[in-house]
Amino acid sequence: MNQKSAKIAIIGCGRVSGHHCRSIMQTTGAELVAVCDLEIAKAQVYQDEFGAKAYSDYRRMLAAHPEINTVAIVTPSGMHHEHGLDIIENYRKNLIVEKPTFMRPSQLVHAYAAAARYGLQLFPVFQNRHNLAVQRVKQGLDSGELGRIRLVSVRVRWCRPQRYYDLAPWRGTFAMDGGCLTNQGVHHVDLMRYFGGEVARVCASMSTLGVEIEVEDTAVGSVSFSNGALGNLEVTTAARPIDYEASLSLVCENGLAQIGGIAVNELQVYTPDPSACVANSEDFSGNVYGHGHEQLYKEIVEFFRDDKPFSVSRDDALSTIRLLNSFYVADERGDWADVATAGDSQRLGRADEALANLYRTPA
Known about the structure:
Layout (H helix, E strand, L loop, with lengths): L5 E6 L3 H11 L4 E7 L3 H11 L2 E3 L2 H7 L5 E4 L6 H12 L2 E4 L7 H13 L4 E3 L7 H12 L5 E9 L4 H4 L20 H11 L2 E9 L10 E8 L4 E7 L8 E8 L2 E6 L5 E5 L5 H4 L12 H15 L7 H20 L3 E2 H4 L10 H5 L6
Parallel strand pairs: 1-2, 1-4, 2-3, 4-5, 5-6, 7-10
Antiparallel strand pairs: 7-11, 8-9, 8-14, 9-10, 11-12, 12-13
């Protein structure tokens, strides 16, 4: 990229944005230039804490700071595509895109094609891949220590009561949020294929059991991997009264690996080498996001400084968003869905102009 540093702006100043700010501040070669939110008071909180200039209009922000080369999109999920395209096509900036990157595979393909036209890069955020426990299991798979995978199991049992969804109009909607699988479970969907490889087909059943919202708060699914392994998935935000676990286990020919904790941060079982568990577990009690965002920004700096490829490629991100949508497609059809051909869900990311207008910057 022929640039020595990442000069970053953030649009959307919710809770996770503060974690982005802190990670940028801790990364040599990364500079937080500005932050933006339609509610200027939210941006001013981060201006006061981190010294970045606060704006309520990202277009004014980008015009005022031409030195910005990368924009982190931390707006409601359903706005990622619209915001991202505007920033790529009209301001020629690289994008960091929080989960779930884009709601639909077609949106991801469109955004990457636009970026390619202008020689720009997209950096999807899948920070849990950088957890010590995740990396130790990945090492065991890649080296053959664990052997071939036979079964992958995901279990997320979290609590999101009605008051959580009532915090903002975008929450609990198919247009802007997605349900427990898209918002809370997407990292675990990603890790299923990060460990298990590409998925051939899925079936799923979804329900709304604990709150009054249009999206699912409980989803179960079965998975058939292309390599012959099987998988199962259980994700719910209907647990009460607190979050209990976010775990992933692998039954392999040479042993069992199980990652648990609040956010796949503890290596709980690793039978080929039980001593690996303590050394590869992290305490996320004060920070559910973990330390993966810091690694993300280090990779972005290395991309700019050293032309080092980012660890999540276009095809990698596309495979995860295709898999995510396939669960919804399977539920919509009431049948198995082939991941390669399922395409976009009818519900997830559907257009809602009235809702989108709440999160658009006025012209």
